[in-house]
Each structure stands twice: as structure tokens, then as C-alpha cells.
């Protein structure tokens, strides 16, 4: 982890990051750049989340980042990490929009002082069907969102 963070700092010509995140609670097999099937992933039970988090804590303690957090962690995985962590995650970045409100995650995060940041506020068109509600409509086709975009003279993609 340290070499990757130091390369990022060097590339950006800065001394520290404001926020450093574990992007997924999964790992790709060595040599895999982009996962195309389940075989490209290391099984969840074989991923040392606690070891990865200890490295994150070390980067924070060494002042290479000011804050640390995670992305795409569900309640169970986030709760487990918090129980083993010396420094608790400050942020969990998750997909969050009108069709994926994640109220249980928001409540859990509030109770545990974990900030939530949202990505894909207009939905994730490329999200696998297995993660969508049956017949889930596209937010880009939503009349209310179209009206808001028109009111603000923006395209739906800029809304």
C-alpha cells in the first residue's frame, strides 16, 4: 500500500492526501487489471481486511493522509472492521440515489459517526442487473429529474 500511496503523492506533487479510501472490500487476483468474471476475484473469506486497514492506519499515523475510510462496505463488513480497528473509518463512500436509498446503512453510519459520501447520484446504468430492483427505471428517464434539469438549464448528466 505504501508504494502506491507514495506514487500518488509524487504524481500529484503533494505531501499528503486529505482522504485515502479502500475502494472495494474485495481484491483482484494478481495480474488482473479489470475484473471480467467471478474468477478474477479473490474470495471474500481470503481477503485480509484487517491487515489492509492496519496499513491504512499506518499511512495516517505517518501523516501521508489526513483521513482514512472505505468504499462499498456493507453494514456487516464495516461493523467487523470497526471492532478490530485502532482508528475507525471516517468515511464510507457508497452508491446512493433515489432508487438505492440505503436507509439502514445511513442509520448505522449516523450511529457510528461514519460520514457517508455518495456516488452515482443519478444511478449507475452499468450496475449489474443482480444489484438492481426488478424493472428498476433509469433516473435519467425520471420526469422530476428532467424538470429540475430544465429549470436549471442543465442536461440530465449535469444535474
UniProtKB/TrEMBL annotation:
Stretches assigned to coiled coil: none
Task: Give GO MF terms, alphabetically.
Answer: oxidoreductase activity
Name the SUPFAM superfamilies on file. NAD(P)-linked oxidoreductase
Span of domain NADP-dependent oxidoreductase? 3-125
Enumerate the PROSITE patterns for this protein.
ALDOKETO_REDUCTASE_2 (PS00062)
**InterPro entries assigned:** AKR, Aldo/ket_reductase_CS, NAD(P)_OxRdtase_dom_sf, NADP_OxRdtase_dom
For this entry, the protein name equals Aldehyde reductase
Q: What is the lineage of its organism?
A: Bacteria, Pseudomonadati, Bacteroidota, Cytophagia, Cytophagales
Amino acid at each position: 500500500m505504501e508504494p502506491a500511496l507514495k506514487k500518488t503523492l509524487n504524481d500529484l506533487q503533494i505531501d499528503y492526501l486529505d482522504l485515502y479510501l479502500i475502494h472495494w472490500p474485495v481484491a483482484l487476483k494478481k495480474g488482473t487489471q479489470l475484473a471480467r468474471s467471478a474468477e478474477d476475484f479473490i474470495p471474500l473469506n481470503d481477503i485480509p481486511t484487517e491487515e489492509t486497514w492496519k496499513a491504512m492506519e499506518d499511512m495516517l499515523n505517518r501523516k501521508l493522509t489526513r483521513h482514512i475510510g472505505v468504499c462499498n462496505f456493507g453494514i456487516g463488513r464495516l461493523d467487523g472492521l470497526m471492532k478490530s480497528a485502532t482508528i475507525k473509518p471516517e468515511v464510507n463512500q457508497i452508491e446512493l440515489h433515489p432508487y438505492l436509498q440505503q436507509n439502514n446503512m445511513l442509520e448505522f453510519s449516523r450511529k457510528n459517526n461514519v460520514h457517508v459520501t455518495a456516488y452515482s447520484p443519478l444511478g449507475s446504468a452499468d450496475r449489474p442487473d443482480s444489484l438492481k430492483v426488478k424493472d428498476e427505471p433509469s433516473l435519467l428517464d425520471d420526469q422530476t429529474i428532467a424538470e429540475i434539469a430544465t429549470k436549471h438549464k442543465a442536461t440530465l448528466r449535469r444535474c
